[in-house]
Amino acid sequence: MANLSTTKMSSKGQVVIPEDIRKQLNLKEGSQFVVLGDKDVVILKNISPPSIDEFDELIAKARKKAKAAGVKKSDVEHAISKVRGKK
């Protein structure tokens, strides 16, 4: 069941997440959030990088789609060089 608590926003727009909720959700210093505001509702969604296994799965899917689309390694290298301003 969700914890319910109140907090205040500082003059700098900072909001403290109460300790019991931080502990319940295992939030640590530096945790990152997506913030959604709609009418009088503010939602903070904790985001975290994918695990190594999830990342490997994402890379495998991307490689499979790239191969199906006919993208070659040299195409990717050329695109990276172009974005970085190299010829």
The helix/strand series, from N terminus to C terminus, equals HEEHH
Strand content: 15-25%
Main beta sheet: strand number and arrangement?
2 strands, antiparallel
DSSP summary, beta strand count:
2
Largest beta sheet: strand ordering: 1-2
Q: Roughly how much helix do the residues carry, as a percent range?
A: 25-40%
Q: Uncertain segments of ≥5 residues (pLDDT<50)?
A: none
Q: Give the terminus-to-terminus CA distance.
A: 57 Å
The number of helices is 3
Please tell me the total number of domains.
2
What Rg is obtained from the alpha carbons, in whole angstroms?
21 Å
CATH class of the largest domain: Mainly Beta
Helix-and-strand structural type: alpha+beta
CATH A-level architecture of the largest domain: Ribbon
Under CATH, the topology of the largest domain can be stated as Pemi-like Protein 1, Chain: D
Mean pLDDT: 91
Shape: elongated
Considering the chains and any ligands shown, give keywords for the structure:
single chain; 87 residues; alpha+beta; Pemi-like Protein 1, Chain: D; two-stranded antiparallel ribbon; 3 helices; 2 strands; elongated
Provide a descriptive summary of the structure in words.
This protein is α+β, with helices and mostly antiparallel strands and 87 residues long. It has 2 domains: 1-48, Pemi-like Protein 1, Chain: D; 52-83, no CATH class. 39% of the residues lie in helices and 16% in strands. It has 3 helices and 2 strands, in the order αββαα. It has helices spanning 19-24, 52-68, 73-83; strands spanning 32-38, 41-47. It starts with 18 loop residues before the first helix and ends with a helix.
